[in-house]
Every structure is written in structure tokens, then in C-alpha cells.
Amino acid sequence: MMQDTHQLRCTGCARVIAHEDLKENFRCADCGELYEVEYPAWSVRAATPVRRNFPNPSALRWLWKERRSSSELKDQSGVWRFRDLLPILRDEASIVSLREGNTPLYHLPRASRETGVTGLYGKHQGMNPTGSFKDTGMTAALSVAHERGFAWVACASTGNTSAAMAAYAARAGMRSLVLIPQGKIAWGKLSQAIDYGALTCQLRTDFDGCVRVLNEVVRRAPVYLLNSVNPYRLEGQKTPALEIAEAFDWQVPDHLIVPGGNLANSSALGKAFLEMKHLGLTDRVPKISVVQAEGANPLYRSIQSSDGRELTPVEAHTRASAIRIGNPASWKKAVRIVHATGGSVEQVTEAEIALAKAEIGAEGIGCEPASAVTLAGLKKFIAAGKIDPTETVVLLLTGHTLKDSEYTIHYHRGELLHDDELTVLRAAIDATRRNPVELDADPDQVLRALEQAAQ
Ligand code: F0G
User: Fold this and answer.
1) Which atom of ligand 1 is nearest to the CA of 155?
2) 385 CA to middle of ligand 1, Å?
């Protein structure tokens, strides 16, 4: 049995409320900003007996490792084995899990050679049960919805959130409502939401339009909002940071590079690294940098024009449909984390994204286009002198390559990019393309193809 150990602090006016007082849109009634979960027991001002109850860092590290060999579902989950750092449920029996998390951290030898960064890794969140990092947040927030007795959950999505939500809702025996922009999400993701039984509404608008409609729906019907404005999502999305620290034996990497869409994930990871340092689990935090697609770059523009004080929404255009977002809900949280950790914000072109995706594919790993902005961004950070090749860098690969296989096929067929997008990258892109060869059922033809490929 977990105690109710958390409260919510507004990231705008710092007002603290109990969870019962959260509005259905998760915004502060006074200033309209978003909340963050906080745990009073971790405060330096907390009463001594509470602090004394908190396990010491070595005990926690040991416990988390030990749980991996347990046969209990809550221990096998890479989110809930760290439950001591996300005590958001009253009762562990409310946990809805698909054994998410515990994802691989891969060394990237080819990209290492190309960039000169020997310590270059990909934390592959696409290896989660529904193929994206959203599962880590969904197990957390959907368990909260389950515990609080909601029958319906809902989200607006560019695809991955809806796939994750539909799966976890199905597991919990709950109903789910998905709002997606018609014709603007990858087929793999749409098929997941349908397969897991969501009521899937394709709206004739973009992602930002879906968010506007959903806000009205949750005001008028008792459905629980599971977009990343829900602060419990971010508690689950902290856990890849814990896994990264654990993988480096609690010596954190120098840099973590994260794709930026609605801009919640960068702040969740940043919160985790700051909390780990505060609790004495690690002694520093990595620089957290965010990379956006050039056609969906409101944060990049905001940093350039006002150092993150103002953000003007844009009409978003990118083939990396997961991050096709012009009015990101959590941009202020992201700015705070980039500033607090000394990170940067970069933008990358469609051709840079496509090439980086092919390069990650050539590592035998693969990812979806939105994830590849991390490698494309790394090249720019190195060129700008913001990352030194001697430093350790982790790229957060947010989604599985099978999420958007159409993109991959178009790329390799040479049908993805227009001539005016290829420019200086044309030769590099051509060198990575592996279009299938059509032959007769004839061994000689196959042998000729083999000979050609070996040259
Ligand atoms: N990468 C992938 C694969 C995503 O699906 C998303 C967001 C992001 C990166 C960006 O993360 O929004 O926290 O900055 N996808 C959302 C969705 C918006 O609906 O699936 P963020």
C-alpha cells in the first residue's frame, strides 16, 4: 500500500494544490499554467521523521536492480520498479502495466565513427510494448485514472499517444477516445488505436485543432485527459532517465538529446535528472537539448527571438508526423529544463532528418523519423562547438521504425524528398538508399545482384 505522498505545484504561480483540486484540463485555476507533481517528503524543509523514512541512495539503487529478478508485474515493469520516485498511487493494486520500460541503451558504432563522438548511445524507447516512449507515461497516468474510477480516457494525438493510451485502457478494461488529425498520422499508429479498441475520431484539422476540441470535450463529459498536460504522464516518463543513469553506473552522460514536439518529454527527463541529483543518487545532471523539425520549430524560434520568454505558434509542416505540432502545450517546462541543465535547442531540415533516420537504420536499430532528429541535431551541435566529441552523448530514440514504414520505403525508393530539399545532402542520401531489386525467380539473376552489391 502506497501513501498519498504527492501534491501539485503550478509551474506558473507556484500555487500548491492537492490532487483532488486538479481541474479536468490540468491547468491552474489562477494563472492557466501547467502543474508539476512534487513530493513534500523530499523537500529539504520536510519534517525530520518523514525524511528519515526515505531510503538512502545505495539502498534504492540496490532495490531497483533486485526488482528486475522478481516475478511480480510491478517489479518487471521498467517504470514501476522505480516506484519509490513516483509515488503517485494510493494502492499498488491500481497499476496497469504491459511490462514497459527496461529498454536497451545501444552503442552506435557507425554514427560514432561519422561524428567522432566515441561515447555515442541511443536509448531506444521504441522498444516499449506499443513501440514508443509514450508507454512509460501512459502506465503512470492511466493507473491514476484507473484508481480514481474513470470509465473513459481520452487524448488528442499525432499517433503514438493514442496507440499507447488505447492499449493501456484495453488492459484496464476502460474505454478510450482518440482524436487524431485526419490523414496526418502514420498508418501503423492509426492501426494500433483501432486494434486496441479505441473510439477513434479523425478530425478534419491538425493536431493543435484536435487539442482544442478535446479541451471542450473533457469540460463537458467525465473523461480523463491523458495528453502530456497531465502531470502524472511525466512521472512515468522520468524513468528512462533513471535507466540511463543506472546503465552508466550512476555517472550520468554529458548530453541527452531529445526530439521536441508538444515538449513534455524533455521536461520529464530533466525533472528526473534534477530529482536524482537532489536525492544524492547522482552528482550532476546532463545537458538536455531539444531538436525540432525546421517546419515545426516554435521552440527553436522562441529561443532565437526571446531566449524562451515568448512563443509564437506556427503552422506545422514536417514529414516527421509525430512532431508536427505548432503550438506546444509544455514549452515553458521545456525552456526551464534546457536553461537549468545548460542545454540548447536546434532545428533540422527534412533531408537531415531523413539521412539521420537511414543512418540509425543502418546500425541495425532503426527508429521513426521524429526520433532521428536527435542524430541530425547532434551533427549540428558538434559543428557549432556545443558538443565536444570527447563527451558522452545519449540520443533518445522515441519510436520504433515500424511505426512509419511508408516513410522508410519512400526514402529508399528515392520518392520522399523533392530536389530542392536534397541540396548538399543528395550524395550522402543516395549512398544510404537501399531500394529493393526486382528480379525473376532465377539464381543467376540473384548471383549477379550479389556480385554488384559486393563491389
Ligand atoms: N517522438 C515521437 C515518436 C513522438 O510521438 C512524440 C510526440 C515526440 C517525439 C515528441 O515528444 O511531445 O513530449 O515533445 N508525440 C505525441 C503524440 C504528441 O501524440 O503521440 P513531446
Assistant:
1) 19
2) 27
CA–centroid distance, 399 to ligand 1, in Å, is: 9
How does pLDDT run across 88-122, given as a tens digit for each residue?
Answer: 999 999 999 999 999 999 999 999 999 999 999 99
Measured from CB, residues less than 6 Å from any atom of ligand 1 are 132, 134, 157-161, 228, 259-265, 322-323, 368, 370-371, 398-399
Can you tell me the distance from the alpha carbon of 156 to that of 426, in angstroms, rounded to the nearest whole number?
A: 36
- Rounded CA-CA distance 186/128 in Å is 18
| Residues 140-190: tens digit of each pLDDT | 999 999 999 999 999 999 999 999 999 999 999 999 999 999 999 999 999
State the distance from the centre of ligand 1 to the C-alpha of 393, rounded, in angstroms: 21
Residue 201: strand pairing partners:
179
Which DSSP state fits 197?
T
Q: What is the mean pLDDT of each run of 10 residues along the chain (455 residues)?
A: 77 96 95 96 64 77 97 97 96 97 98 98 98 98 97 97 98 98 94 98 96 96 97 98 98 98 98 96 97 98 98 98 97 98 98 98 98 98 98 98 98 97 96 95 97 92
pLDDT in tens, 25-61: 999 999 999 999 999 988 865 555 555 556 789 999 9
Q: SS3 of 104, please?
A: coil
Cβ atoms of 382 and 448 within 8 Å: the answer is: no
- Name the residue at shortest CA distance from atom 11 of ligand 1: 261
* Average pLDDT score over the chain: 96
C-beta separation of 182 from 203 below 8 A = yes
Q: Which atom of ligand 1 is closest in space to residue 371's alpha carbon?
A: 1
Q: How far apart are CA 208 and CA 279, in angstroms?
A: 37
Cβ atoms within 10 Å of 387's Cβ, excluding its own: 24
Kindly report the number of other CB atoms within 10 A of residue 165's CB atom: 32
Question: For residues 259 and 371, is the Cβ–Cβ distance under 8 A?
Answer: yes
CA 98 to chain centre: 17
